[in-house]
Design a protein that fits this description.
Bound molecules: flavin mononucleotide
CATH class of one domain: Mainly Beta
CATH topology of one domain: Pnp Oxidase, Chain A
Largest sheet: 9 strands, antiparallel
Number of helices: 5
Structural class: alpha+beta
CATH architecture of one domain: Roll
CATH superfamily of one domain: Electron Transport, Fmn-binding Protein, Chain A
Number of strands: 9
Radius of gyration: 19 Å
Shape: elongated
Low-confidence stretches: none
Helix content: 10-25%
Order of helices and strands: HEEEEHEEHHHEEE
Mean pLDDT: 97
């Protein structure tokens, strides 16, 4: 008979496994939790989704950070409707996470910007806003940065376009696929001022 992981029948261990996966997602580029599908509600009230990189997970606040361009569509959508859902799936681990939350566009973005290399900052140097139609195939940023990164001073021009999205987690839905029987659980976060209370329940998969 196949063995099951320690978290299989334990909500507390499942919660710890989720936290560990989110930390790995931030730290390890190869982790299946590094890229995630961010779902938003469009201005026309339709579902919208795109892949983004998980940049930070704070266990104390239960928040997640994502970087984006201030001029992008998703920013307008988040300002219009803060409700978001992040969907992760690791095929090897057979784990799906659906993280629901409320997103804000964070004002204090200096620290996150400071951690970016000049090479990464190129994305924020496009002259036109992301999503704009173009007559030609283009990266959007000046040609001189195709092979050479911008200087420190040149890269700083991108700061105004850089946006830090912070997501306050409200729910995490866990699904673990196993031949013995799947496991599904719901973790709900209640916020009372700065105090956090997480409740956990099993669900029928
Ligand atoms: C692997 C991968 C990672 C990506 N990471 C980000 C990211 O961290 N932030 C971001 O704004 N866009 C990222 N993108 C691009 C988005 O998927 C999307 O195309 C872009 O942000 C425009 O989205 P919007 O028009 O819905 O705002 C990534 C795309 C891929 C394929």
């Amino acid at each position: 008979m196949k063995t099951t992981p320690k978290f299989y029948n334990c909500l507390e261990r499942t919660k710890n496994e989720i936290f560990s996966l989110l930390f790995q997602g931030v730290k390890r580029r190869k982790s299946k939790f590094h890229n995630v599908v961010l779902n938003t509600v469009s201005i026309e009230k339709k579902p919208e989704a795109r892949t983004v990189v998980l940049r930070n997970f704070c266990k104390n606040e239960l928040t997640l950070n994502i970087h984006s361009d201030q001029r992008s569509k998703k920013i307008k959508e988040i300002i219009n409707d803060k409700n978001v859902c992040l969907v992760f799936y690791d095929e090897q681990k057979k784990i799906q996470l659906r993280v629901r939350g409320e997103a804000i566009v964070e004002n204090s973005k200096k620290k996150s910007w400071g951690k970016l290399s000049n090479w990464s900052r190129r994305c924020y140097l496009t002259l036109d806003a992301p999503g704009r139609l173009s007559d030609n195939p283009t990266s959007g940023f000046p040609d001189k940065f195709t092979d050479i990164p911008p200087s420190e001073i040149e890269s700083e021009m991108g700061y105004v376009n850089f946006a830090l999205i912070k997501i306050f987690i409200t729910q995490i839905e866990w699904l673990y696929l196993a031949s013995q029987g799947h496991r599904r659980a719901l973790f709900e976060v209640k916020r009372n001022n700065s105090k956090l209370n997480v409740t956990s329940k099993w669900m029928i998969p």
